[in-house]
Automatic annotation (TrEMBL), chains A, B, C:
InterPro entries: Beta_galactosidase_C, Beta_galactosidase_Trimer, Class_I_gatase-like, GH, Glyco_hydro_42, Glyco_hydro_42_N, Glyco_hydro_b. Its EC number is 3.2.1.23. It comes from Candidatus Enterococcus mangumiae. This is Beta-galactosidase. Keywords: Glycosidase, Hydrolase. It catalyses: Hydrolysis of terminal non-reducing beta-D-galactose residues in beta-D-galactosides. Gene3D superfamilies: 3.40.50.880, Glycosidases, Golgi alpha-mannosidase II. It holds the Pfam family Glyco_hydro_42M. Residues 407-612 form the Beta-galactosidase trimerisation domain. Residues 623-680 form the Beta-galactosidase C-terminal domain.
Length: 682, 682, 682
């Protein structure tokens, strides 16, 4: 693992001096303001290609040299981006193949961003050329901290290059057409391939509902994106073998009231080829559809998932000091929210708070996206002042830099299961909601300040006290075996409706549910009843009744013990929750989807038995989140009030306030949005 | 009329052994399970082309031979499908012209199904070749019951072949450009044709709002679809002149809370060229937007419409034993619902219950569509058990096979009026709802167990006691005359707002409403007031007030007698319902759309006067449907409880339970979903 | 200024005899019915090209000669349209370049209307040829009143001709690529142009979110549309230099509950090249989403805006005597509504009530659009009778023809600000609602019968007592100076959130808000808080609380006096309304959007102080609108009851009823929809 050489928490962000080259007074003022804002790091070059190489082969680096020098002079650092996210007009014009072709076969021309063909040989060559130039010029510069490769990789291309690559990918995976036809079940509707030339990308104008093909296409998109990335870093690895590389991951879904990891790319695969995970974090604070602490919970979930990708500290590469411009309604963070949301990043394992963006542009499509320096070009406004205050507080928290987070609870998430669940027919199309269901489980732990890792089934989960794996729809044989081993050795496992329903080709198992799963859970699934919105059944559990929604699995227990049953409909009195002892451990199969009230009574005894509760305050408060990082010798606790009200917590032991160096005891009071960072010696 | 040679009610359905050729144990098990399920018929070949002819001109029939032999051995029958609904990849690849071109001129490539060009000479030739092969090989096989031509014909193509055919069709119909320009009123917006080459299909990129053209285009689509069908059956008629042919019709509209006959093709025209009507019946049972008996009513409506197409027993070619996969929410039938819904098919004149599908596929887009044999490959589950129980009950009901249904009430429905009403502007676009309005009228009779035929105006309605023809917007001269004759000879006719508004070119009548209609209804329409949703007027009728909705026609009576008037707005006290005596009969013009409460007081005296009431129970129950079939000597009554509650009916006379052979008298009790089939000697 | 030579109010409208050439009895009847309807003017030729020139270069004018003669004979007048809105099929077929290309690059073929390329050299030539023919033949005809150029210009074309013209336009405006890159802020996302060939129209397949480009594209569309218009009128100006030309403007937005001026074209620019403003007025009377008087208010707003374009009487070129056909629900005007709505046109400065259309077509897409003569071809129906009554009343009102309207209040509206506000991100996308906010301000004055002019910032507003300019987002330096001068000389000016936020390139000002604006308003804007729907703050003003919505600007006063403050959230107690004295005048900055209740208490003292109240009745009624026109010697008052209820008003002085010639005094009673026109000697 490569890491970077700086002991500070990084504070700063995307800096676009190329927009201001005609305004030297602005460039000068930038650095004065950076000092005032306690900024130590800038990310440059993300959309600078047309400035770096205004004509093919003609390079202009002077302006960038100055940034490196200026940052170096003030002991600051530079994260240098490769510019492939936004290519110059001349490149699109001279080599039209570099532009993306959409799913309808329409060739795009130049415009917008992030829309190159990731297969085009010319684009790959041109990207290597500019990247090599950058590496040669800045690779040894002492201010250079790491590489930021491209920007927010995403999307798909359907050009002939990509179609050919897709064909090769399929050929390479399956070797024979018979194998393809089998895997994708192509005799259905008489669509069996009889020639490799018939294998083309999915399209609404051709094949577009073949589940196995769609799943493989998503895998191919991830593979080809990574392949493009690997091409990008070739000259960089050659010239700067010791510098870490990252690329900024994304989340999605704000205006739909969701806030979830990006679904289009399997980041668990991508994480394997980068040195440091980083992401662009834009929670929808102060939204009208949920209380603030639920926004914080979703934000925490994504932090934990991205931290878990490598189980290392990560970076927040982008965030806004105020508002974004791409929501339907773009609300600024209220006073205090910026510091609270920044501290949450650190609390979950980030070693940075970086912004998009340092300075607002005066024109073009993101001119109303927030920045540290606004259009008023002044340090007097509220946003700049809060950023500066935050930067100053970061200086006192450097000790936490690089410290990991420890968790005994794992939630399993699988990009491939998610892809498969989102495609095709059956059950309730609008109610699959795999990630959102994981977040509902996560919420239980987050509200009780219990740390959670979010792993893929390919990661090692054998040492966790509790593994929560509902809706793991697509399951490899290996995963089944590892889950079985995990339980046998004493683990506690949670499965559910949809668990293990299909194999890696999104095909059903012929005959019974796989024997390994039967043994783990002690039951046989019979039917999966789909409920309409507003339709419910009830679960009777320990004498109380809990409402179900969306799905009620009907199962028959074998070795398992029925510990909850349905209260109505034709499957009344059949099992809703089955507990199965296996070896030293226990597996639970929760057949129905429930609300949080049921999850609370279900999980509460487990966390007590496993002694998972946090140990520094007397009673936890759902709206005050406590997260900790540790360097082994010390634990660092972040206590964060995600509410508009004053809150109180009672410390169980004296703890040191890391910022004031005072020892705190007894009842702590938190103003709205207030954060305290406490330190404990181990 | 050709019919098939089997005395049983058909039970079975779509069978796709080609998906399982690599699994001989599955193929073996299929036939064992068919015996257990009391299956006597399989439909094969629907999507088998790529298996039958994996390379051009290379045929593989062995697998199909085995199906024929296996079915024959167990006294079962085969419905053999022509495979044109899903062509092989090689055909699309070698002859791209066979792929459809959409309305934007985008050429599709291979994929999905049901998307060939119906004009392509090569496709027509290739279809004939494979059909000839099938007819030659299986035409004399004793297990062959009938031909199932293609699958669910639908859709449109806009390729150059189709454009040329469209031009020919227009030329053939109108002979001169002047006639086209007149019929389509093309001087409007200066769009008069000056050359035949200007006549091209409607398109959003060209002409797309010319009412007359749109109407003719829909006619052309039906004609060209039938023409394709006639091409398909040429070798079949030649080789197997005595075997009946059918093709499976469709319904549409589930997720929109509608369940109505397919609107895109004029099935009354299609019915003329097939021997037996069959359709694919997928009511949305247990939906959240209506009580169960209303779903049953809509389902009954479509059964009656398709039965009335030839006024003969029909076949249910597809239905699901459990759930479908293409709704937003796909709910399984609850226990008992399968038998109830199957019996309803028979009650309305079906001689079969056939399923899509025998066995669920493991992969691809319909893998979650229900089947007799599920992924568990077992007879133990609920669905298989219910199918088997149903199959066993069918064995005792063979006597009803082939018996017709008798009705004294006719509802008129016209595909062309529906097309014309759905196009273009004016009035309330979302509230035209022609078919749904017919269903509201139908509901009155269905809830009282009075049989109804649903005819087109081209069918003979002269012998019915009551003809209900609201919203017959487009009316030919002939229809007016026949309606007039019908009333004069003693019939009772119901017309309404929209009745007879346009001629066959969707053109208004210049001057007064046609004299024939004036004479029939005794009035002159003045205006048609459109109401917004939530806006209402009231009708005062026999001292009580009834709410109107959507439309209030303003009329002036001539010879008619005003028997209801409006209660408010500027047309207060003007006629809402006019009764007109003509010869021996009476015509009613209901000027406004009302709720069911008004239809009840309007129709109730008529059914009493005409003695249309059912005669076997004392009081009918809306939720218990009674439908009968008769062979002249015996009447067979289906009493079906479409509710989740216990229901009671009191028999007016002793009747024989056809399944138990016991005579029932007095009070009958029906469990939820229960069906009894009773027999009466005439 | 050219004007037309007729002393009457024009009554009549679009007449399409070319649809009826095969029906001479209809053509004959038309003129008989026109006499009965008191019609004095017909507009012909709008969609007659295929009749005028059925083959290229072959002209048929006889039918049109007859119209001219018939109108002349009865002392009627003809408005002659050029036919470019609907070209003949042969033209589209022979010269495909004349057809429009859409934003996706799809070439349209012939069909529909209003979809020619406005750049095509051939189309421009062909349009000149036919226009020249018309001018030569009818230019000296005594019945010819004026020219109606094309029809409802709108839309955009993206063909190669237009792309080339766009490039020239950009080159002409900016001269250098550096200037383009600066103006559009193209270094952002690395999109700087390095060659003129890269400058192409915006497209979803290329550049489509560059604010400056989008704004310039809208300007180009207006310019190119006007350029097409100027090409059209070349032969007309040459041959008939003394005849006025007009083209019919549009409004938009009915089914979205909006009724606003067309947004796509800058009519203030277009108005400069026409002699008379005319527009097509289709308010959504009797809709379910607002009381009638609010529909009237929106209708009045557009009348006033189009009248203000030239500050002269205008024409209503189209309106419907009954219903339209293109709403979701097409409701006919109730009895009395036609006369009321027609009189409203006159009240706001129209010298005509013209209809689309004289006679309903029997077929094609607008066959259900209302007309004076319906399908019944009769004068007996309600619509014809009301039109005739209205025509007769117009005869008594000729004195008002040509009289202007006087207003002391101006609302500023700017098409460019509207375009810029509607594009791109930031703030609340669904809540910008610039025009709707102007209408909310207008409503205050309309309900109190105070006349308002609606001007662009380029018009002279120096003489108004009150200038209301909220949300004037894009502001030129000149405008700032003129506003400053206006206030200094004693004017009262209203600004708001969004005011003066960007320059003419939709770029933010770097640094503080422009000094001129600071001086005018006496404050510095700090932040613009966006509220979600349902989210509110309160304004405390003169001891009472008023709700805000959508936007709350946060400002810091300098020279201004805070006269209202916010009641909650982090900006509690900061200024919500600032009053600033400057020279002899006062400027108000209303930082937040409010409901009408606040506008009432805000504006009421102003109108009292400025003595703006109407002076003929004692208490105004919001639902009875009073509007006046004046010839200096006389004032003509229209008193219009826009409600379904009887209303009363008390006259402050005796006034003459212009229609009855009786003097009215004291309490006047208005039946629902009733209109009285009163005359006062000055």
């Amino acid at each position: 693992m490569k890491t970077y050489n700086d002991t500070r928490l990084l504070h700063g962000g995307d800096y676009n001096p190329e927009q201001w080259l005609a305004h030297p007074e602005i460039l000068k003022k930038d650095f004065e303001l950076m000092d005032k804002a306690h900024v130590n790091t800038v990310t440059v070059g993300i959309f600078s290609w047309s400035t770096l190489e205004p004509e093919e082969g003609v390079y202009h680096f002077e302006w960038l040299d100055k940034v490196f020098e200026a940052m170096h002079k003030r002991n600051g650092r530079v994260i240098l981006a490769t510019p492939s996210g936004g290519r110059p007009q001349w490149l699109s014009e001279k080599y039209p193949e570099v532009n993306r072709t959409n799913i309808l076969g329409q060739k795009h021309h130049h415009g917008f961003r992030h829309n190159h063909c990731y297969t085009s040989p010319i684009y790959r060559k041109k990207v290597q050329q500019i990247n090599r130039q950058l590496a040669e010029r800045y690779g040894n510069h002492p201010a250079l901290l790491m590489w930021h490769i491209s920007n927010e990789y995403s999307g798909e291309c359907y050009c002939d290059f990509c179609a050919e690559k897709w064909r090769d990918w399929v050929k390479d995976k399956y070797q024979t057409l018979d194998a393809v036809n089998d895997a994708w079940w192509m005799t259905f509707w008489s669509n069996s391939y009889s020639s490799w030339s018939q294998v083309v990308p999915p399209s609404p104008l051709g094949e577009h509902k073949v589940h196995g093909m769609d799943l493989d296409w998503k895998r191919f998109v991830t593979d080809q994106t990574i392949d493009f990335f690997l091409n990008e870093i070739e000259p960089i690895r050659e010239i700067t073998p010791n510098l870490p590389v990252t690329t900024n991951f994304m989340a999605e879904g704000h205006d739909q009231q969701d806030f979830i990891p990006l679904e289009g790319l399997d980041y668990s695969r991508f994480a394997e080829v980068i040195d440091i995970v980083s992401w662009d974090s834009y929670p929808d604070w102060h939204n009208p559809y949920e209380p603030l602490h639920l926004t914080a919970m979703k934000s925490a979930y994504i932090h934990d998932q991205y931290r878990s990708l490598k189980k290392q500290p990560f970076l927040v590469m982008e965030s806004t000091p105020s508002y974004v411009n791409w929501h339907a309604y773009n609300k600024a963070k209220k006073p205090g929210m910026h510091i609270l949301s920044g501290m949450q990043q650190l609390a979950h394992g980030s070693d940075s708070t970086l912004y998009f963006q340092w300075r607002q542009s005066l024109g073009n499509s993101e001119k109303f996206h927030g920045a540290v320096v606004g259009h008023d070009n002044s340090e007097k406004n509220r946003v700049f002042q809060e950023v500066a205050t935050y930067g100053k507080r970061l200086d006192t928290l450097a000790a936490i830099k690089g410290t990991p987070k420890e968790a005994k609870v794992a939630i399993l998430f699988d990009w491939e299961s998610n892809w498969a669940l989102k495609r095709g027919g059956g059950f309730g199309r609008p109610t699959r909601r795999y990630i959102q269901t994981l977040q509902e489980n996560y919420r239980f732990f987050w509200e009780r300040d219990i740390a959670v890792d979010i792993l893929t089934p390919n990661q090692d989960f054998s040492d966790y006290a509790l593994v929560i794996a509902p809706m793991l729809y697509l399951m490899q044989e290996d995963t089944m075996k590892e889950l079985s081993e995990y339980v046998k050795k004493g683990g506690i496992l949670i499965g559910s409706y949809f668990t293990g329903m299909v194999n890696e080709n999104d095909q059903l198992h012929l005959g019974e549910w796989p024997q390994t799963l039967q043994t783990i859970f002690g039951l046989l699934p019979q039917e999966l009843e789909t409920l309409y919105p507003g339709e419910h059944n009830q679960i009777l559990y320990q004498g109380k009744s809990y409402q179900t929604k969306d799905y009620c699995g009907i199962v028959q227990e074998t070795t398992g013990k029925v510990i909850a049953t349905y209260s109505q409909d034709f499957y009344v009195n059949t099992p809703a929750l089955v507990e199965n002892r296996l070896g030293q451990g226990t597996a639970y199969y929760l057949a129905a989807r429930t609300d949080l009230d049921f999850l609370e009574v279900f999980y509460q005894p487990m966390i007590e038995k496993l002694a998972l509760q946090q140990e520094i305050v007397k009673d936890t408060q759902p709206k005050v989140s406590i997260q900790s990082r540790t360097d082994g010798q010390h634990n660092y606790y972040f206590l964060m009030n995600f509410s508009e009200e004053r809150q109180q917590l009672e410390l169980l032991q004296p703890l040191l306030d890391l910022e004031t160096n005072q020892t705190l005891t007894g009842l702590l009071t938190f103003a709205p949005y207030e954060v305290k960072i406490l330190k404990k010696e181990n």
